[in-house]
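I hope you will forgive my troubling you with a question about protein structure. The matter concerns a single protein, recorded as an amino acid sequence and a row of backbone structure tokens. Please examine both parts with care and let me know of anything in them that strikes you as inconsistent. Here, with my thanks, is the record as I have it:
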Amino acid sequence: MLNEIRGLHHVTSMAADARENNRFFTDTLGLRRVKKTVNFDAPDVYHLYYGDEVGTPGSVMTYFPFPNIRRGRPGTGEVGKTVFAVPQGALPFWKERFQKMGVSGLKEEELFGEKRLHFAGPDGDGFALVETSDDDRQPWTGNGVGDDVAIRGFHSAAMRLRDDGATGELLKFMGYSEIEARDGVKRFAIDGGNGAHRIDIETMPNIAHADQGAGSVHHIAFAVDNRDSQLAVRKALMDTGYQVTPVIDRDYFWAIYFRTPGGVLFEVATNEPGFERDEDRAHLGEALKLPRQHAHLRPYLENTLQKIDGAAGAAA
């Protein structure tokens, strides 16, 4: 069993409109845009990162906004819901805020003894807020969201699978333990994790496979401290039979990828070097940053990428 993984690092999804996506995460959710860059494999598409002040691993939601992409069809073999942690008693604030801002898909429920508020993103993305009482992570505040209610980072990610057996065993190999099961959902967690250390699996054997598009999660990334830890994880996964990519430099972290038995794409990303490697903390997410191999495209990209209104998100 691995002991290098700390919990989630980031969650990456797809969107249809960069401006609308940016507005939702900075204005509606009150997160900070910590990086504005481009997709390594499709440089004419943004890669936008949102999180806390510095993009702490476990807080970062990222997006590829593909112009005119069709909306995804929910199903199995995907992350169906990304869940954020908020302080105890914060849900009434968020429900009222979402109602005033026209956010759709609002539904309150309780799962594993935790109160949660479900809501949808601009492309039908599945999200929820969960009240937690023991999360001491420091939030980004602003746009009318105070410290007493602000998002702390991820709480969990929930996968929809036709069969949970093989993926459950994989999570256990990665250092997770099954801690609870209720109403068709199994919860896995890492003891002493980074706050974003829970994975829920909902087994849905009669549901068709998801068809990815706008609003779909492209992959979820798990955090390790450094490159040595990442190499240890890679070797262990390959020794177990998984096909794992070589280490890829993503400028703000190093990444490896592999496909899980349930069909979900997993990444293992390093906590180093972080988002301050090419911008100072006060101005994270403001300038368009390009990977070295795409630097020569700057004049073209600055003229063709959709202009994003507003700043990266202002602190209160």
Observations:
- The first strand starts at residue 7 and ends at 15.
